[in-house]
Amino acid sequence: RDDVLSNDLRPDQVRLEGKLGSGQFGEVRRGMCYLTSRSNPVPVAVKTLKNNDPAGEKEILSEASLMKQLNHQHIVRMIGVCKGESLMLVMELAELGPLKKYLEKNLDIRVWHQLELMVQICDGMRYLESKDVVHRDLAARNVLLVTDHFAKISDFGMSRMVDNSSAYYLAHGPGRWPLMWYAPECLYFHKFDSKSDVWSFGVTMWEIMSNGSRPYDRKKPQQILHFIESGNRLNKPRNCDDRIYEIMLQCWEFSKEDRPHFQLLKISLEELYREFLRLQI
Ligand code: ATP
C-alpha cells in the first residue's frame, strides 16, 4: 500500500464534480486535479469507493499499482491515488466515455473509422502484451473515447501480470467474469494470457462492427460454451467486409497457439484501415 501511495495526491489537490458512471465498488466521478500549486487544474476521472469497503480498497490499490507501470497513448493513464475520506483512483479523463455507448448512438459510423478505432485498441493491447500484462476485461464498454478518433483502454480491475515461468495467469474462479468475451481455456482451466485477450479483442471487433450489440444474443454461459465447442462462432455482422470478419475468426481459433499476436493483428488491421480510408468507405 505504501508503495502505491508513495506518489500520492493530497485530498486538497482533487475536486470532485458530477458522476460519470458506476462500478462494482463505487462510482466514477468527473473532477479537477491540481497537480502543482502554480499550474492550471486538469480534468480527471476519479474512481471512488462506497462505504470504504475493504474488498474495494484492495481492488483499487491493485488496479493502481498495475496502472502505475503503464505508459501508452492508447491506455488510460493513472494520475495518482488519493486518500481523502476514502480511497480514490485519479485517472486522465476520456471525455466522450465508453465506446459501446458511442457505437449505439452513431449508427452511421464509417468502416474506416471503425478500423481506425480497432487499430488503436490493438496498439494498446500490443503494448500490454509486450509488458506481460493480461487485461482480462477487454470489451467495448471498457474502451473509452477521448475524441471521436482517439480510443483508450480502461478498467484494469481484473488485469494481472503474467508469471514469467508459467507464461499465464491462473485465476481463482469465475467471480463476476465477462464470459461472453472469454476464450475456451479461460472458461475451462481459468488460464489467462495475451492470447486470451486476443479472443476478447475479436469479440470487441465484433461489437464495433455491430453497433455495440450484445454478443450471443441472450444465450446462457453453458449454451455459449457448447456453441463454441461445436465449432460455431459469432455471426458475421451485417455489411461487414469479409476480410474484417476473417480477422475476427483468427482471434477465435480454439487453440490459442493458432491465434495471432497483437503485433501481427495490428499490421493486418492497419493495412485494411489505409485501404478503406483511401476509398472513404
Ligand atoms: P465494472 O464493475 O464494470 O468493472 P469498474 O468499477 O471497474 O466497473 P470502470 O468500468 O472502470 O469501473 O468505470 C465505470 C464507468 O465510469 C465507465 O463505464 C465510464 O463510463 C466511467 N469512466 C471510468 N473511467 C473513466 C475515464 N477515465 N474517463 C471517463 N469516464 C470514465
UniProtKB/TrEMBL annotation:
The active site is at residue 137. It comes from the Eukaryota. ATP binds at residues 20-28, 47. Residues 14-277 form the Protein kinase domain. This is non-specific protein-tyrosine kinase. The chain holds residues 371 to 651 of 651 of the full protein.
